[in-house]
């Protein structure tokens, strides 16, 4: 061969480095993923918009390349394994698809998104088999961080941050009084708002901690300790950050302290805490630099995996079962999603013994949100003792995307309004109570109940479960949301006014049914 011919030889392509079983299995997996992407494009696009538009989830944009890198780390060892279709993986696929169905029929985006991510992961054991799945177990687990979840933690994190902040404020000698998430100091009134809850910091640190624990540690105990630190440290650090803002405001003013806090929290604080956690963990890293990430020989020789592999089934069964599940779940969702309960043409607030209807004129306008409701009512009642209660009712023929009684931004607290969440309040009959503060001046207590069928609860989770059960069983029942609210004053406590009104309505479920004329 001539020298110039030798010099022009190109390196072998990836296609030629793959064995025939790998090429066939990769084609199966790629076809399955393409079908999932096309069939559930709306869910993937909705997730991508959240990753891009919502700062809490911006870090998720790094998860796909991280997963790719994790697989690439394992690729030399994975090539030593032989992929083969594993039909029992259809059980995992159906479980993920059913989770998506529950979200689709109830309007619960978190379930839909968890379902599509789960289906993508379930394709790996289905198309590549249990041994390859064992080799990529952690990358598959890490796919869970694609799901934009965590906003549900905001109220709890607000309260925790407020408790840490007031404790440090008192320790630093600053006189302060706390009321829910509001802290009153000589420099002014501070609110531990949703943006100050630290949720975005916590979610990102948890994803980082899981990655670092797997890459840098071999021992399970050390991994668990690092992951725990990545949960606890951000929460504590966020409390310190909030206290620092209050402390600085006593000397430099509220505006200067708040402006500095936004710069520090956005660009410096996260990196600083991250560096501290890594610095503390560095000396305990126990994975050798050049050690293989997985042990292919141990996976190949595993008797447990061999027993699982025996129930394999053919690639044809895997592909046909995959297509049947995807098609079937879409048909089920379409049939259940078209259900709508019959409703009266009009509803009205009833007479209540000992109370009379009066004009609705709150000191700060308050109107709950019930987007997509078929009927809405808002009125005010007053009794002879001067107690005043506001009543809001929303009636839905169905619960779907864009018309969810318990959805984000629905109910007593409307985003971008004069009202801020202050603290939880105990409510009777399983209701959800919350204290709101309007323009930093007016306190309002609101108690919420949901009614579906014979159930009565203030829990959004219970409402979603009831909606799921109705849709899966093709039942057509309306959903009602009731909010009883009152402004809180020293002379007329809101909780007592609402309790007095509640005692006058009789059984709350039956009273709600009478308003909606559903029984």
From TrEMBL:
InterPro entries: EpsH-like, Exo/Archaeosortase_dom, Exosortase, Exosortase-1, Methanolan_biosynth_EpsI. Keywords: Cell membrane, Hydrolase, Membrane, Protease, Transmembrane, Transmembrane helix. Signal peptide: none annotated. It is a multi-pass membrane protein. The keyword Aminoacyl-tRNA synthetase does not apply. It is found in: Cell membrane. Residues 318-507 form the Methanolan biosynthesis EpsI domain. The keyword S-adenosyl-L-methionine does not apply. The chain crosses the membrane at residues 25-45, 57-75, 87-111, 123-147, 201-220, 225-244, 264-285, 317-339. This is Exosortase A. It comes from Novosphingobium panipatense. The lineage of its organism: Bacteria, Pseudomonadati, Pseudomonadota, Alphaproteobacteria, Sphingomonadales.
């Amino acid at each position: 061969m001539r020298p110039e011919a030798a010099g022009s030889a190109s390196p072998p392509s990836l296609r030629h480095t793959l064995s025939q079983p790998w090429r066939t299995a990769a084609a199966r997996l790629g076809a399955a993923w393409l079908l999932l992407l096309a069939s559930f494009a709306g869910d993937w696009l909705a997730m991508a918009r959240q990753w891009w538009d919502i700062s809490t989830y911006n870090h998720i944009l790094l998860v796909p390349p991280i997963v790719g890198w994790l697989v690439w780390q394992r690729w030399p060892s994975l090539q030593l394994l032989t992929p083969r279709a594993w039909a029992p993986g259809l059980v995992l696929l159906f479980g993920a698809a059913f989770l998506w169905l529950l979200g689709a029929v109830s309007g619960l985006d978190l379930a839909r998104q968890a379902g599509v991510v789960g289906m993508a992961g379930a394709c790996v054991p289905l198309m590549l088999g249990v041994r390859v799945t064992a080799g990529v177990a952690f990358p598959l687990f890490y796919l869970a961080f694609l799901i934009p979840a965590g906003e549900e933690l905001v109220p709890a994190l607000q309260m925790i941050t407020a408790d840490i902040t007031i404790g440090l404020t008192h320790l630093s000698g600053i006189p302060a009084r706390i009321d829910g998430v509001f802290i009153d100091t000589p420099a002014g009134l501070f609110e531990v708002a949703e943006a100050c809850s630290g949720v975005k910091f916590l979610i990102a640190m948890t994803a980082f901690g899981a990655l670092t624990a797997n890459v840098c540690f071999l021992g399970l105990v050390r991994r668990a300790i690092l992951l725990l630190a990545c949960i606890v440290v951000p929460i504590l650090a966020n409390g310190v950050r909030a206290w620092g803002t209050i402390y600085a405001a006593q000397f430099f003013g509220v505006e200067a302290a708040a402006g500095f806090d936004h710069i520090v929290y956005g660009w410096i604080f996260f990196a600083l805490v991250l560096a501290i956690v890594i610095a503390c963990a560095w000396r305990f890293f126990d994975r050798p630099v050049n050690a293989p990430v997985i042990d292919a020989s141990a996976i190949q020789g595993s008797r447990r995996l061999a027993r699982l592999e025996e129930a394999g089934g053919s690639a044809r069964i895997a592909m046909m079962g995959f297509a049947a599940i995807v098609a079937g779940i879409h048909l089920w969702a379409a049939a259940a999603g078209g259900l709508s309960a019959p409703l009266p043409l009009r509803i009205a607030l009833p007479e209540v013994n000992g109370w009379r209807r009066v004009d609705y004129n709150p000191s700060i306008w308050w109107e709950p949100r019930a987007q997509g409701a078929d009927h809405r009512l808002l009125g005010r009642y007053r009794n002879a003792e001067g107690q005043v209660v506001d009543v809001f009712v929303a009636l839905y023929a169905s619960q779907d995307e864009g018309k969810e009684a318990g959805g984000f931004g629905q109910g007593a607290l409307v985003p971008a309004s004069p009202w801020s969440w202050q603290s939880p309040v105990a409510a009777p009959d399983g209701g959800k109570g919350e204290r709101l503060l309007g323009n930093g001046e007016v306190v309002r207590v609101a108690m919420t109940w949901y009614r579906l069928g014979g159930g009565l609860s203030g829990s959004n989770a219970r409402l979603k479960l009831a909606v799921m059960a109705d849709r899966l069983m093709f039942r057509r029942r309306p959903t009602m949301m009731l909010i009883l609210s009152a402004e809180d004053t020293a002379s007329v406590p809101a909780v007592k006014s609402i309790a007095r009104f509640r005692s006058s309505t009789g059984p709350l479920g039956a009273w709600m049914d009478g308003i909606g004329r559903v029984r």
